[in-house]
Write a structure and sequence with these properties.
- By secondary structure, the protein is of the alpha/beta class.
- The protein contains 6 helices and 7 strands, in the order E-H-E-H-E-H-E-H-E-E-H-E-H.
- The protein has helices spanning 28-52, 71-80, 92-101, 119-128, 167-178, 197-201; strands at residues 11-16, 60-65, 83-86, 107-110, 134-138, 144-149, 182-183.
- It has a 7-stranded mixed β-sheet, sandwiched between helices.
- Strand 5 and strand 6 form a beta hairpin.
- The longest helix is centred in the first third of the chain and has 25 residues, at 28-52.
- The protein is globular.
- Residues 1-5 and 208-215 have low confidence and may be disordered.
Length: 215
């Protein structure tokens, strides 16, 4: 699926290579290492499909982790014409900051854990940057599924307790300290814990229809 030719804004996706035992580890008690890995790969494909429906392929950069030359990454790049770049070392904030700094203009960054993300929401978030300094899509567990900035500033991501339910709250505090105006167009949910799997199975998006059930 390709975006309309008139749609063009920078979009970054942060993703780990689908390696059993190293992705979706909190889901392994429910799915096992192989099942969690298959679900991770399916969610990654969904995130890319969503991005391709919102912006042009040459505007998308997939920032890779664990195995930068993984066949799945290469296949996605060859099939869709997106760019691959290795995530730098550092915590999540440092990696997001570099991805945003690498953009040629205002753009958005997503992960691959949020099946509720839609092309319309991506476009809405990008438009929000015409007035806001930063845009976020918070998720119910206290983090966020998307961040976009008009101009990158690493101070937005400093002193954050990554992986906790304090991430969005602390990020708001950093934005306030910078004097930034924030836009948060929607509250979403992501897939991190076994209790999220029933919700995913009932989700209307065809993630679960690819190749049967995720386990």
């Amino acid at each position: 699926m390709c975006a309309d030719t008139h749609t063009h804004f920078p979009l970054a996706i942060l993703a780990k290579a689908p390696i059993p035992g190293q992705v979706k580890t909190r889901l392994m008690p429910a799915l096992g290492a192989e099942g969690a890995c298959r679900l991770h790969e399916r969610l990654l494909q969904h995130a890319l499909d969503t991005a391709l429906a919102a912006t042009s392929p040459h505007s998308i950069t997939l920032w890779t982790a664990l195995d930068h030359d993984h066949p799945v990454f290469r296949e996605l790049a060859d099939r869709h014409g997106i760019r691959l770049r290795p995530q730098p070392k550092g915590d999540l904030g440092q990696r997001m900051s570099q991805a945003l700094q690498a953009m040629e203009g205002p753009g958005v960054l997503i992960g691959s854990d949020c099946p509720a993300l839609t092309p319309a929401l991506l476009e809405r978030c990008q438009r929000a940057l015409s007035e806001a300094d930063a845009v976020f899509l918070p998720v119910e567990d206290g983090g966020y599924a998307l961040v976009g900035v008009r101009r990158a500033d690493p101070r937005l991501f400093t002193a954050i307790d990554w992986g906790t339910n304090r991430v969005m709250k602390q990020t708001r505090e950093r934005a306030d300290a910078l004097g930034w105006r924030l836009a948060c167009p929607a509250l979403l949910w992501d897939v991190d814990r076994p209790e999220d799997l029933d919700r995913l199975a009932n989700h209307s998006d065809p993630i679960m229809s690819r190749g049967g059930q995720y386990p």
